[in-house]
Write a structure and sequence with these properties.
Layout lengths: L6 H11 L7 E2 L9 H6 L3 E7 L2 E7 L5 H8 L18 E4 L2 E4 L13 E2 L1 H4 L6 H8 L9 H14 L5 H8 L9 H12 L4
Helix pairs in contact: 1-5, 5-8, 6-7
Length: 196
Amino acid sequence: HVHRVDPGRAALEQAVREPAGARADVGADEPSRLDREGVEGRGELHAELEMQHDARVVDVDPDTPLLYVLRDNLALKGPKFGCDHGQCGACTVIVEGRRVNSCLTLAVMHDGERITTIEGLSAYGGHPVQRAWIDEQVPQCGYCQSGQIMSAAALLAGTPHPSDADIDAAMAGNICRCGTYQRIRRAIHVAAGDAP
């Protein structure tokens, strides 16, 4: 059967999968392999990360934020640099099931932990939150959307049927400069299967 997609919808679908490309599941099931000598000497640290089921060792300075390692060392461009103060949520990732502002946490603090960026949320934008974002046409400019989607996914993982108050509390750390908050709330209810 033929499926037509209008150009606006195609751009919207791209925004919620942003960026297209590599899937990112970062984390290791084994105990930490952080080179502790690097901490004392303030040299580079070796952290073993699992990325797309391939172990990767990343050498980073001990005071490097997780955001920089994800974007610069691992080429995962989904988490965005927004404010560098944990106020906007554009850099949100999920670490061991919890929402984390990757600009505020050091990469070495997460050695051996499972880190998920929007690239790893689903292979082709098929996560319920991503589908709801498309169906409800949430994004405008799209810059904050990967962080918004990651916060919503973390919320639904812990609270499968959130109230409006639950959504407001969970999403309070994410700013949408375009003001799409009503669409964000509705999309979360849609993803939860609670929308009329």
